[in-house]
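subagent[fold] <- orchestrator: predict structure for attached chain, return tokens only, no commentary.
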Amino acid sequence: MTSTTTTAPAPPAKHVAGGPGGPARGVRRKWTEHGLVFVAPFFLVYAAFLLWPLISGLGTSLTSENITGTGGEFVGLDNYAEAVRDPEVWSSLWNTVWFTVLSTVPLVVVGLVLALLAHELRVVQWLWRLSWFAPFLLPSGVVCLLFLNMILPSGFGLADQLLASVGLTPEIGWLTDERYAMLSIVATTVWWTVGFNFLLYLAALQAIPAHLYEAAELDGAGAGKRMWHITLPLLRRTTGLVAVLQVLASLKIFDQVYIMTGGGPDDSTRPILQYVYQQGFTGYRIGYASAVSYIFFALILTVSLVQPLLSRRRAEEAAK
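subagent[fold] -> orchestrator:
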């Protein structure tokens, strides 16, 4: 009788760390498994063009550095203390906040209304969507020059001619009167940037299931009730996102004011970023300009944290 013996397969040989290419191969495999090889170029660019300037600018804000290359002595928090006491900083910051308040509300409301109209239209929808989104694709310089040609010269511009045609008094100082200068910049900004909010709202409207409206209509709900009880509640998150994004964009205003009014009349439209520009490149005080910009950065960072906090609070309330 013949007996057969079975030999168990030998376990796979472990790679010796000290063998050829051992540690290097292990590191490469670990980087590849976690995808770090693919994101490393982005991290390098991110560190070179964002993190390093951020750290370098913070260090500059603690010095008396001049744009001419002189100075640079460490002054600690003196620049920040001077910025807090500087009335020009507060007036420029107020102009920025006032512009944000005036522009955010119409940009949210008009964007929602345009999205509702485009969503309900059944004729040449692509034309309406293109018409309302196209201005957002224009550069800021083109938009500002277009509106300057509409309102200047005073008394002969398109806006004054339209007012005269309906019997109203023309020759309004659209950009030279403190009562109208900021409103003119707000109107320009609303026409130019409302297309972005319109696109976000339109995408959100298209994501609402149609059966909700059909069920509400079968239950006898009219258009107004469907809007109030279905559309607006389901657009709440989109509205929060649009509002936060719009506030952040409006706080960073610079182009429109610099081209249309230069901050005038009497600095009534000068935003905080233009004041930073004037201190750094006109007054040559790079250290002080950096301190003012970091104070403004802290404000923007605070506002940017509002949306996550609101979303978390709504999620907790919904869970309850």
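orchestrator: received. Logging for downstream: Confidence is low (pLDDT under 50) at residues 1-5, 13-18. Residues 94 and 288 are 19 Å apart (CA to CA).
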